[in-house]
Every structure is written in C-alpha cells, then in structure tokens.
C-alpha cells in the first residue's frame, strides 16, 4: 500500500533521514517509534507531502507520489497540537473541509453525524471547543481528518498532550476506530508502550535509519541490535 524506497532528507547539510525502506500494508496499524529527534515527524510530513523528499521514492498503491500535492494524495494527518477553530461548534469543525468544497448542508450534516457516532461525539455537536475535555477535542481533530474518508491516516504523537489515564483510553479508541474505518494507519510515537500495545507492525527508528521492523513480539523477543533491545525492552 505505501512504500518508502531509499528515502533521504536533508535540512541544509544535516541528513535527518538517511536512506529508509519501509512498507506498510493495506489496512495495517503501523507504528513508527523512536527517540525524540530520530526523524519520525519528518517521515510523516514527507508521506503527507508537507516536506519534499530529497532522494528515493514514495509509492502509494503502486504509484510514485513524490510530486503529488498534499491535497491530492488522499492522506489525512492528525497532529499532536490540534488547533480547532474556537468560534465554530464541534459539528462545524468536523464538517469544515466539506463546507469548503461546497457540499450541500444536509449532506454535510449527515456525514458529520456519522463521524460523530464513530467518535462518540454525538452529544457534543453543538458545543464549542472550549467546552470540551482534552480527549473530546482530540476526537474532534480526528473527526476533521476522517470525514474526508482518507485511505491512509497519519498520526503524529496524537496523545502526548493528554494525561496518562486518558491516553490509555484513547489508545483503545483509536484501535477501535482503525477497525471500523478499515483505513491504513501510520502512527508515530516516542512511547514504547504505546507502540507495543497498538501496532500490527512496529518500525523502530534511530538517528534517521530503520533500526528494525516487525511484529511487536518479534522485536521484543528477537531484537536485532542493542538499540532495539534497550529501547523496546525497557519501557519508561
Ligand atoms: P522526531 O519527530 O522523531 O522527534 P523530527 O523529524 O522532528 O524528529 O526531526 C529530525 C531531525 O531533523 C532533528 O534533528 C531535528 O532537529 C531536525 N529538523 C526537523 N525539522 C527541521 C527543520 N525544519 N529545519 C532543520 N532541522 C530540522
Ligand atoms: Mg516529532
């Protein structure tokens, strides 16, 4: 479904992605995990089209998309800091991209209600973001992303601003969402526990390189190098 082939990225003279090969299969929940600064956000931003790729190929469903603009990729991205529009209701926030596309009001309402049901926001559609909890706001941000029916959803540390109890609850919700939407997910985190509990496949990154990839248990039991053994084996 999505392939990165020998992908490199430089910021000036600094090489931050150093020749990365990654495949994520259709429908998978893939987690890219690694310490701060290893290049996770840069990789996601390249997949989304928010950063250019200096070398290598980005292939989506067999088609090279290096030069396809972000809004033509069918990819949605949910960020860690999810700026909602404060003056709009939950329903207006979720439906915003459809109203930009001049979709009729009744159709927007129908789609917003469908998304709200999946995200358990049905009772909050008329509220403004200030009247929501952190977890509810995060769900609105996810709603904004999924209403466009992306085939691939990218999450960049979406739970790191939430307290730990809510983080545990949201992990389960995101997994349920993944099952219901049948979308492919690439989820970035620096949190090993999050990676181990959520992923079908984990890609461990270190200093702009793939340290190892595989199913969570295979990384845990057969780490191929000391970095993976230490990083996966010693949760915080
Ligand atoms: P992560 O998300 O894993 O914490 P990033 O992808 O944000 O890592 O960053 C990878 C490396 O690239 C870091 O060394 C970071 O300082 C550097 N970097 C990220 N964005 C920029 C930028 N716009 N200009 C220069 N260096 C950057
Ligand atoms: Mg980051």
TrEMBL record:
The keyword Cell inner membrane applies. One of its GO terms (cellular component) is maltose transport complex. It is a peripheral membrane protein. GO terms for molecular function: ABC-type maltose transporter activity; ATP binding; ATP hydrolysis activity. Keywords: ATP-binding, Cell inner membrane, Cell membrane, Membrane, Nucleotide-binding, Transport. It is found in: Cell inner membrane. Residues 2-232 form the ABC transporter domain. Belongs to the ABC transporter superfamily. This is Sn-glycerol-3-phosphate ABC transporter ATP-binding protein UgpC. It comes from Rhizobium acidisoli. The lineage of its organism: Bacteria, Pseudomonadati, Pseudomonadota, Alphaproteobacteria, Hyphomicrobiales. The gene is ugpC. The chain holds residues 1 to 236 of 360 of the full protein.
């Amino acid at each position: 479904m999505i392939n990165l082939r020998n992908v490199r990225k430089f910021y000036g003279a600094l090489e931050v992605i150093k020749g990365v090969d990654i495949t994520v299969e259709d429908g998978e929940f893939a987690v890219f995990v690694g310490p701060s600064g290893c290049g996770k956000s840069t990789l996601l931003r390249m997949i989304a089209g928010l950063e250019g790729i200096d070398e290598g190929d980005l292939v989506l469903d067999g088609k090279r998309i290096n030069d396809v603009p972000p809004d033509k990729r069918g990819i949605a991205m949910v960020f860690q800091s999810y700026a909602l529009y404060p003056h709009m209701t939950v329903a207006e926030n979720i439906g915003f991209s459809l109203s930009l596309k001049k979709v009729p009001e009744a159709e927007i309402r129908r789609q917003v209600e469908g998304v709200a049901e999946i995200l358990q926001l049905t009772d909050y559609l008329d509220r403004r973001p200030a009247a929501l909890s952190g977890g509810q706001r995060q769900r609105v941000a996810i709603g904004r992303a999924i209403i466009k029916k992306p085939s691939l959803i990218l999450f960049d540390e979406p739970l790191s601003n939430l307290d730990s109890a809510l983080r545990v609850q949201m992990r389960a919700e995101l997994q349920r969402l993944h099952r219901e939407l049948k979308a492919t997910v690439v989820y970035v985190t620096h949190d090993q526990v999050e990676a181990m509990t959520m992923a079908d496949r984990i890609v461990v990154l270190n200093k702009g390189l793939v340290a190892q990839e595989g199913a969570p248990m295979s990384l845990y039991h057969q780490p191929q190098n000391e970095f993976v053994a230490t990083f996966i084996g010693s949760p915080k």
